[in-house]
């Protein structure tokens, strides 16, 4: 198979806090590769995610100074096992900013909600009830 998405890396200035946030919110396993610099997020089935420190920027061989974020950012969609509103409430308690409450997307016949994590990464949670 060619031109296949492998995984997505999320930048953060505090990799330990970001790891703890996602472990608490989604119950994900986090592997340091190495610990404190780049963390592999293992969300069960499906593709993996990564967390990288803005200071070291692994695997970039020539890291640049972190730049402030502005404007729209890419969205990372997470398939959740319960209504996204439940996860959104927990994310906000953990320090995230709600972007939109759970709503139905008719074209894809599913429900979604979104937040910015405390480090500025946008996450959209997706859920389609069993038929």
Automatic annotation (TrEMBL):
Transmembrane segments: none annotated. Residues 52-73 are annotated as: Disordered. CDD domains: VOC (cd06587). It holds the Pfam family Ble-like_N. Residues 4-128 form the VOC domain. This is VOC domain-containing protein. It comes from Sinosporangium siamense. The lineage of its organism: Bacteria, Bacillati, Actinomycetota, Actinomycetes, Streptosporangiales.
């Amino acid at each position: 198979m060619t031109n296949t998405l492998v995984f997505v890396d999320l930048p953060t200035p505090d990799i330990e806090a970001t790891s703890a946030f996602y472990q608490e919110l989604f119950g994900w396993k986090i592997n340091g590769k190495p610990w404190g610099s780049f963390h592999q997020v293992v969300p069960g089935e499906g593709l993996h995610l990564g967390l990288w420190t803005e200071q070291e920027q692994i695997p970039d061989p020539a890291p640049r100074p972190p730049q402030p974020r502005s404007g729209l950012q890419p969205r990372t969609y997470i398939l959740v096992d319960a209504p996204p509103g439940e996860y959104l409430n927990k994310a906000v308690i953990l320090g995230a900013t709600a972007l939109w409450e759970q709503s139905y997307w008719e074209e894809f016949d599913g429900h979604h909600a979104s937040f910015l994590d405390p480090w500025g990464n946008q996450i959209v949670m997706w859920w389609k009830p069993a038929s």
